[in-house]
Amino acid sequence: MNNRLRELRTASGWSQADLGEKLDVSRQTVNAVETGKYDPSLPLAFKIAKLFDLPIESIFIPGE
């Protein structure tokens, strides 16, 4: 699954560790989601969407 997490995070001026702290996950989890190595759980996806005040489907784009 593709996502815009890195783009949104950097636009907010946050490091991966900053975002991880806001989402209550590790920096490694943020990195794995950003690089597409890990698809977030539904609760985590909702948390991310709420943090950026965007609908989930504008952050996470299903892959081919």
From TrEMBL:
<protein>
    <submittedName>
        <fullName>Transcriptional regulator</fullName>
    </submittedName>
</protein>
<dbReference type="InterPro" id="IPR010982">
    <property type="entry name" value="Lambda_DNA-bd_dom_sf"/>
</dbReference>
<feature type="domain" description="HTH cro/C1-type">
    <location>
        <begin position="5"/>
        <end position="59"/>
    </location>
</feature>
<dbReference type="InterPro" id="IPR001387">
    <property type="entry name" value="Cro/C1-type_HTH"/>
</dbReference>
<keyword id="KW-0238">DNA-binding</keyword>
<dbReference type="Pfam" id="PF01381">
    <property type="entry name" value="HTH_3"/>
</dbReference>
